[in-house]
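Please, structure for the following, as C-alpha cells.
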Amino acid sequence: IVYLPAGTHDFFGFKHGLTATSRVIYIDEIVYEPIPPCPSVVNFEFATSTVNSATFNWFTAPNTPENANLFYEVRTSGAAGSGETGLVTSGTLPAAAGTGTITGLVDASIYQIYVKTVCENDGFDFWTQIQFTTSCFPFDILEENFDTTSVGSATNQTIPVCWKFIDEGVGSGY
C-alpha cells in the first residue's frame, strides 16, 4: 500500500527498466481511493483457540490515535454490518492492546471475524476479514458412522471437523 498525500492534483507514474521505448507492460489491481481517516490495524491474525474462545494478534499503524478501538463482528454467515443473521457476537477491544480474546463461541465451528479500527473523532477504517475454527472438544466416547462420511483423498481432503486426514501411500484414512 502506498499512501498519496491529500490534495487536488495527485499524479503517479510507472517507470520500467526495459531498453526499448515501445514495450507493452500490463498493470493490474490498482486502486486509488482516499486514505481512511482511521488507520487499519496491521497483520491481524488468528493466534490460537480453545473450545469456546479465540485469540487474535495485530499491530497498530504508527499514526493510530491512542484512543482508537478495534470493532469486531464474529459471524457464521453474512457480511460485516449485514444484520443479525449469522452474527454470533460483536464488541470492541483497545487497538493499542495488540491482542484480544473473544469468548462464548462453540467448539469445532468455523467463523469469520471482521474487524475495523474506530477512532473517536476521525471515523472508522474499512473492514478486514479472516476465517478461523475453534478447537474440538475432547471425546470421551468415540462414535462415528463412516458409512455416511465422504472418503476424500490426498488432493481432496473432505473430512469431518475434528478429524485429520492420513495418507500413508496405501489408501485413505482418517
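The longest strand covers residues 110-119. The CA atoms of residues 39 and 63 lie 7 Å apart.
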